[in-house]
Amino acid sequence: MDGFLPFGFNVLNAFLVTGENIWELDSGGNLLFNYTKPITGTHTITHSSFKKVGSCCPYVGLESSMVKVKDNKFDNVLFAFEIIDFSNTFAEFSHNDAKNVHWCGARAVQAEQSALGLDFGPQGPLPEPSTLLVSHNNIHGIELADGVVIIDYAPMVGAGKRLDAMISCNNIVLDVEDFGGVFGFFAQDVKVLNNRITGTGRAGIYMGIVELESNVYDSCAGWKVIGNNVEKFDALVAPIWLGPGTSGCTVVGGNNKLNVWDEGTDNIVVGVNNMQGNPPGQDIKEAMEQKKGITRSRP
């Protein structure tokens, strides 16, 4: 079979942990998704192998829970790890080997249901703050892949952040054009520490670049980008790209000289080469529209 998913995959999820999904009929009699009820528990996936699967082990709607996905192998998948709308929860994706990833190695999407909703619009209160650790993974991205994606919709609707994320000591290798190693959308205070990013792509680490309307960008503030090695990353824009929506971010170089394109406000760069990036032009806008379409999809 050619498969119903992109790239010919026939299996959507190997594991799916989620609360009850509520569907309702609209005025035209069409069955549409409304919301997901929260679920609580402790979940561990370890020493497992996943091959040719869509989203391997997504978690949706967790509350007061713990998730650990450690020491696993992923090959030829869309997403190795996803966690969406998690409240008062700790999630860890560490010591995994993910190769031939088509869309994303690890993706966290916070407050989607409460801020945006899906077919019937926003549902329920914003989640309580949660914590994510992505550490000591090998991630190899192809096609449309980012290595790690951090999205928090709460600041988009004027609320405080709902996600504390640390991305540390990962080895990310990319063979892509429009995407990159670590991407943030409305994410606040993310720590990106001691990662090695090589290969090709739009940028090694980038955030605050999505234009929501004319000259209005997603805000990403307070990032700490420290000790990362992007020396051998061939970037179309810049190895590290602090977009127009960034503010109060800090970039500190390691033993290698970093090239940073800073378009933001009140950012601090230390031990790096400030540079002018290659203007992204229309192609990056089209790629970001494609990315937004991907990040709105649920497993």
Detailed description of the structure:
With 299 residues, this protein is mainly beta. The strands form five sheets. It has a nine-stranded parallel sheet with strand order 4-7-9-11-14-17-22-25-27, with no helix packed on it. The protein has a six-stranded parallel beta barrel with strand order 10-12-15-18-16-13. The longest helix has 15 residues.
Q: Helices and strands in order, then pairings?
A:
Layout: E1 17-18, E2 21-25, E3 31-36, E4 42-46, E5 49-51, E6 55-60, E7 66-70, E8 73-84, E9 90-94, E10 97-110, H1 112-115, E11 130-135, E12 138-143, E13 146-152, E14 163-168, E15 171-176, E16 180-185, E17 191-193, E18 196-207, E19 211-213, E20 216-217, E21 220-221, E22 224-226, E23 233-242, E24 246-247, E25 250-252, E26 258-262, E27 268-270, E28 272-274, H2 281-295
Parallel strand pairs: 1-6, 4-7, 5-8, 6-8, 7-9, 8-10, 9-11, 10-12, 10-13, 11-14, 12-15, 13-16, 14-17, 15-18, 16-18, 17-22, 18-23, 21-24, 22-25, 23-26, 25-27, 26-28
Antiparallel strand pairs: 2-3, 19-20
